[in-house]
Every structure is written in C-alpha cells, then in structure tokens.
Amino acid sequence: MKRDEILREVATAVALIEGVAGVLEVVNAIARFEPIAVRKISRTVGLPVPIVAAICAELRKRAVVAVERPVQLTPEGRAEFGFAGRAPVTDPEVGLSADLEEVTAELTKVADAAPRVRLEIDQSHCTVETKIRRVLLLHEAGALSGKRVLFLGDDDLMSIALDRVARRYGFAGSIREVAVVDIDPEVVEFCRSRLHDAIVPASFHVHDLRDPVPEALAGRFDTVFIDPPYTPEGAELFLSRAASALSRASGGNVFLCFGMKPPPDSLRIQSAIAEMGFVIRRLERNFNEYAGAGALGGVSNLYHLTSTNMTDPLIDEHYAGLLYTGDERGTRRYRCVSCGAVETVGRQQTWETIGDLKAAGCPRCKASAFRPMPRSGGPVRAR
What we know:
This protein is α/β, with parallel strands linked by helices and about 375 residues long. It folds into three domains: about 5-80, Arc Repressor Mutant, subunit A, CATH 1.10.10.10; about 100-305, 3-Layer(aba) Sandwich (Rossmann fold), CATH 3.40.50.150; about 330-370, no CATH class. It contains twelve helices and ten strands. The chain has helices at about 5-15, 20-35, 40-45, 50-60, 75-80, 100-110, 130-140, 160-170, 185-195, 230-245, 265-275, 355-360, and strands spanning about 150, 175-180, 200-205, 225, 255-260, 280-290, 300-305, 330-335, 340-345, 370. The strands form two sheets. It has a seven-stranded mixed sheet with strand order 3-2-1-4-5-7-6, sandwiched between helices. α2 (about 20-35) packs across α3 (about 40-45). It is elongated and about 75 Å long. Residues about 375-383 have low confidence and may be disordered.
C-alpha cells in the first residue's frame, strides 16, 4: 500500500478533521522521537490522546507502526514515508551531526563558487549550516517525502542543499519534484549546473515574481520555500505567489524566512498571512543566519505555514509597487576614504548599490572603502 493511500484511508477511518495532513503530522512525530508514548505524540501534534491512539491503531493495521510499545515505525513504514536514513532532528543549540561533515564541506565549496550577491534585489546568502538545518527541518515537518517542492527565489542554493542532504540520508528518491524560480539568470544556471545528476526530477525557471507564477507551475506544489525581499511588500508578494503555486488541497506547506520588523510592519505581515488563509504551524526564532547581513542583524525567523481551504493570494496580477529595500531609499552619496571623491549610489545611477561601487573601486584612486554622507543634518558614522 502506497503512502498517499495509507494517509487517506487512516484519515477517513478516524474521521480526522485535519485530514491527511494530521495523519502525516503524527507519522512525522513518531519518526522524530521514536520510541514515543501516545501522550507525548498528542502534546507534540496538538491532537487529543484518543485521536492519536486511534491513528496509531490504524497505522499499525497497515504495518506502518510496529506492534511494540512505545510507538515506533516499522522498517517498512520508515521506508514508505522517507525516514529510512533517520536524519537527525534540528536543534539550533546543538551543532550539526558528525555524519554531515562531508556534506558540509561540499556545500561550503558550492557556496564559495556561487554567483555574487546582488544587493539591489535584497540577496543575502545564508550560512552553509543554515542551509542544512533548513533541509532537516523540512524533512522533520513531512514537507519533502512524497512532495513536489518549489523554491521561489534560490540565491541561498537550497535546491542544491536539499539534493545533497537527501542523498546523504537516503530520502532523495521519495521527493516527487523540485523546481527553482529566480529572477537572477546566474542563480538559475548555477543551480541547474550543480543538479544535472539529481535523483529528483528538477526544473529551473528565470522569472520575475512581479509577474504571476508561470502557468505550468500554478497549483502544482505541496511545499513552497521563500526568503523574500526584506520589506512588507516583498513578504506579501512572495506569499501571494506561494499561495498561487500550492495545490488547491488544504495542508500545503509554505516556509517563510523573514526577520524582525517594527510592530506596524509585523502586524501587516501577520495580517497578510491570516488574510491569505494560512495558519502558522511553527515559528523558529532567529533560525536563519546570514553572512554579512547588516540590515537583518545577521538572522531571520523561520515560519512554517499551512494552507487551508480558504487559502488565496492577495496579489494575483502583475505587481508594480515597491518591492526591494532599495526601492524606498532613492540615492545616497558616498565619499572615498582614500582620496575624498564623492560618488552617488542608487537607482538609475552608475552604481545601484554601495556593493557595486566597492566592487568597481573609486573611479579616481581605485580604493574600495567609502563613508556614507549625511542625507541631511549632522554627520553619518561609518559602519
């Protein structure tokens, strides 16, 4: 009996309001903590003890759960649900497992060869450890095995990290499909080149998410991962595109990476989550660490959202408003520390970002250190 059939049968037999997503959450909890008491499963997934006991009984009939107590999966159950490799759980307070050393070393080389960060579109690469922890968390959450997975923006190279970690723990074959959508052609081509021998069927698309998700991708996916521009508008747009890409069935997964914002902006983002019909299933504070992300303080939170039968995008047409942090800033003048030359950075300028100016060097002396000049009023301190 196949995984999806098992989930449907058990959800029907127990008359579970949460449907197959609720059954899958129980299976994931067992896989994460086995052997585990029914009462602990109940606390973990938020379902009443009698309901969890009934689900376990039905899973036992189908040889997913072993007859032994406390509750644990059978070898067949682990294989069917993609847990044969027993990947470690994600605990931010504990270092990565020693058996991930080779994967970490390989992904470090991949990250070193990645396309340059494009600050003008709010790219900020997460650390290699964060890439791996993200994959492990998605696996724990049951968002990979048997799923079609979409990365809306992938300058963090999560599609590559997913392939390497999934191979290491033996669940790559259980993932149905991976797709990458990014506005940056260099990112798309880099991911394509590093996944030419991927076990999972993979597709790659250069696309500006100001436009709706390509028709071939709409309504197709079970899991969507987004790390949007660091603005409320960016979060709303990327969440809308994620909603459009999800399968119409409830219980879809969206993983949103977003840092702390002032209360009015935080309220706006949380309101958008609710208005689009998503439920916050899990929130991991400061889960994501970034290299050189001053605006983010180096970290962001990771939200696991679940779709419902009310999920619908706020934005379903072309979007022409503000999106990136630079859209709000206009231009800024910078003075070269070495020779004192002043250059203007911003939209429709020779250098769109201070990163571009530093990379090119001062036109007069070629130095790469610059000090921002005051927008108005007093002096500005260099950072």
